Each structure stands twice: as C-alpha cells, then as structure tokens.
Amino acid sequence: MNNRTIVLIDMDAFFAQIEQQHNPALQGKPILVVGGPGRHAVVTTASYEAKRLGVKSAMALHQALQICPHALTIIGNPDKYIDYCFRLLNIYKEFTDLVEPYSVDEAFLDITHVQRLFGTPEQIGRKIKQRVKQELDLTCSIGIGPNKLIAKMAAEWQKPDGLVIVNPEQVPKIIWSFPVEEMIGVGPRMKIHLNGLGIKTIEDLAKYPGYMLKAKFGKYGEILHQFAWGIDTSVVDPKSFDQIKSVGHSYTMPKDVTDLELIKWYIYWLSSKVARRLEKEGLAGRTIHLSVRSADFNDFGVQTSIPEPTNYPQKIASVAYELFLKNYIGKSVRLLGVSVSNLSSQNQFQLDLFYDKPKMAQVLNSVAQVKNKYGDEIIQLAMILLQNKKRWVRQKVGCFLTNREKGHVFAENVELHR
Question: Which residues are catalytically annotated?
C-alpha cells in the first residue's frame, strides 16, 4: 500500500455542465437541474453561476428560486448523463487499467504503475483534463494523493477546474486545519456528536484517544480516527462497477404526509419495487435501509440487517416500516426511500419460517413469470391493492388525495448502485 499515487476526478456541476454544453443559450446562465416537476422538486445540480449566489445541491427548488429567481429550471435526463459517464470512463482507461467509478460524476484512478508511460502525476492530471475538455467540452476538478481519502478531499479544494496534489510527507497535517465536517464520513449528525466531545477540527479528531472513539461509535469511530491521520488502505477496484452494491427506490410525495396508514402504503409500494428489481437481477440482501425526508427538509437514514438474505417484498416492507416506527418523530413526511444492500446471488425468495417454502417459492416464481409477460403492475400485494381502493374512495369524497397514483408520480427515483 506504500508509495501509491491515486487520482480522484470530479466533474464540475456535471448535469448542469452537460445541459449547457448541449444548449449554448444556457452557457453563462444560472441553471437548476431537477429530478421532476412540482413544488416539491429538489435541485440535483446547480450550475456554478447559481452556486456562486448560494444555491446548493439537494436544496428545495422553491428555496433555490428565492435565492436565484432568474435561474432557469431544467428537468434532468439520466440517460444522457450516464452516457457521458461511460464516455469519461473510456478516456480514463486509456491512462490506466485501474479505474473505479465512485459515482456518476466521480472516478478513482490508480496511476502508480503508469508514470513511466505518461509522466508525473501532475502531467497525467493535466493530460486527462485536456482530453475531457477537447472531447466532451467539460471541465473537471482533480485531486491527487497517496490514497483515495486524500485524493477525494484534495479534489474539493480548488473547484471548479482545479488540480491539487498532496505529497505523502504533507499528510496528515495538511488536512488537520479543516473543520471536522470536512472529513469524509462525517455528516451533520456525526458532526453534532463529535462537537459534543469537543472535537471541532480534523486535528482534534486525530488527537482524540482512538479507543474512546471506538467505544462510543464502534468500528466507525476507529475508521474516522484513521482517516484523521490520513490513513486509508482501500484499493482502487475496477470490478466494483460490475457489482451491484444496493437496489433502491425513493419517492417524493405530492403532498406532505402524516397519515401512518398512507406512509405504510408507500413503504410497501416502494418495497415491492425493490423486491422486483432484486428478483430480476437474481439477488437477495440482508441489509434494509430506510430514507426519510421531512417537510422541513431534514433527512435521516436508518438501516438494520436480518439473519438471512431476502428478496421477498413483504419481508422488506415489514422491516422498513418497523424502522420508520422506531425513528418517527411526528413530522410530516415529504420523501421516502427503501433500499436493500449486503447482496448475494439468490434466485429464490427468502420466506418466513412458517411458510411452506417450496410451495411459496413456486407461487412467487409463477408471479414473476406473469409480471415478465404482462408488466409489473398486473399483480400487487393485497395490502397495496386495499390501500389503493381506500385512496380511490377518499378521492370521491373530496379528500386531499386528488390525483390517482399514475397522475402524480413526478419524482420517483430508481437506484441501482454499482
């Protein structure tokens, strides 16, 4: 693991850049790329013209327009962005065979073994930037360091269109002056916990007793302590893109919801979609994750692991709903997401102990065949169908649910993380 040279390439305002590149009339103007129409839309990417005025990713569209009322709003095109992602990966692979996509707009490269071919780390970084600009007319920010952690952090320091190199002898002191929330893996909640321990900077985190962090936060505390010292032994894994790490669906409500029965319906509906994707991929998973966004845009995510992997929709839904009830604080819900990770290959549903497994597996395989032929909506869980009927009755008596399901699905996000 010693003497490695790792590159992190981060595309600048990726979605917005692509839209500006496709439409020259948008260049130089503040634009907001959103997932879909509606007053609950969220900014997925803001151009730097909008960012300079204070707009941030994941901000509610109505808030972004208050900050930047003259911004142009564009509904994103995921297929177009994924196409650009693969074109970028093809460029990176001309420099090294060790390329690991980190997200649709980021990738790690291990260039330790190719410097005799392409020059110094700085020269390689500038060559990559030049190729991306010439071939795709896009800019990127690059961080280069002795490991993935340092490269990732360095890529943030001179955005947009930056290139930062951190030499091994500069680690860890170069990162110690940063606030602790700048450390990879420290989110808003962890920041609160760490601040409560008197940890304000990354140096504070590095010098805090590691055994105490482990005692309070478990293995995660131990990892954060290592990160604060600039230690990261993870490798650049080119095969990671070929492995599905999680399958999930999320949905933004047409209205803020407090009705627990309706929330339960949404969780079952999302879980059935997740189960269907798992079944199509021949996968099952042990870790079930629930994401919730409240009406005031506070997010939280909770997860739990079950003893055996499952792709059974009712099992996923029951665990996700239990997570919701344990963590629900009474606020209106704006977004729900269900995902399953810790995956393994398994073509058969994992069933409850009291099911006749062979018979139920045969039934579920038959259901899958019917769905393959006639579509996923042809057969639904009874709980979903019952609630659909209740929602239809509510519409007839003038309740707030005025749109049928297909009429208001404007921001459903489908995730297949690789």
Answer: 106
